[in-house]
Amino acid sequence: MQLSRFIQDNIEHIMVEWEAFxxxxxxxxxxxxxxxxxxxxxxxxxxxxxxxxxxQTEGERRLKSEGLALPPQLPQLPDRSAADHGSLRQLAGFxxxxxxxxxxxxxxxxxRLWAGHTGTQPLAIYDQINRFNEGIDQALAESIASYSHDVxxxxxxxxAVLGHDLRSPLGALSTCIQILGSPEAGVAQKERILQIxxxxxxxxxEMITDLLEYTxxxxxRGIEVVPATGDLQPLCQEACDEVRSAHxxxxxxxxxxxxxxxxxxxxxMRQVLRNLLTNAVQHGDAAFPVVLDVLGDxxxxxxxxxxxxxxxxxxxxxxxxxxxxQIAATQSEPHERPSTSLGLGLxxxxxxxxxxxxxxxxxxxxAEGTAFAVHLPRLPLVSAAA
Length: 386
Hints:
Strand order of the largest sheet: 2-4-5-7-6
Helix content: 55-70%
Order of helices and strands: HHHHHHHHHEHEEHEEHHEE
Number of strands: 7
Largest sheet: 5 strands, mixed
Shape: elongated
Distance between the termini: 56 Å
Structural class: alpha+beta
Strand content: 5-15%
Number of helices: 13
């Protein structure tokens, strides 16, 4: 059987194996749906099969096997599936090594399955193998080029957002310094200006902290978590009071029940709660309260932050915990817009929860609203050396 015909006839079997391998590429794949894992794989294979049956010169085939971009007058893959695949994988959080591994696994899978359908190995078989490899190499080159392009755009956007968000509190600080240095400023005015200056410094500090912790995770060091058994109730109440104070026009309800004694890192869990509550205020409908439900049962303590408002799209839910993902806060009031929109808050929150041996999940619908649920186990983490 011709390899191109085998691909067309057995594409669903190949897709199953592609998906099974892609599922092992964690962390990005562990939260992805079947559709997102497969995304452009079927179209890539179909394009390669069509390409294999087309007439091409030796020079054209050599360019493809070397992974070089073909001039416009020479044949390209019939669609943009490989380029789209690279862009989607970049958005989902795959690195280049994982993207490359997908294609190598796809190549090996197709050839292994095809070998089971061929009894002899004439020269024509080897020529078909070479044609298939050329198609895979070209698809990989297009995916990596698209991936790299989107990484560059993401980096530039991140730097632009960082510069924009730092300018606001720095501008406020500059104004505060000028007013405080004025002999006409009264005591009451100076006190108010000092509060603004403190909030500006706090905003800058939070952005720098997020950047440093993001860098730690990318270097493989993770976020340091030092749990100690204690009562979560005071911390939850404190976090609610802090966010309520920062957003006095928004209703915030804190409900706690059950045994809330659990191992946790107080500083880190304060970060998680502050992030989730502030996120809910910024993205929720101001006509409805933000609710923090804390419930302890025999196995774990669950902290759930709920808000009503425009639901998060299914595509955004797939990547919402990935770094540098930004969801527009369409429901928030102008004075409650996020002080930082670097897209690191939920990513860092997840890393902290994972460091506690717990999990964090999100659900969102128009009927039920949006809910982030943090599950903290009662048993402390056991070190690898234990």
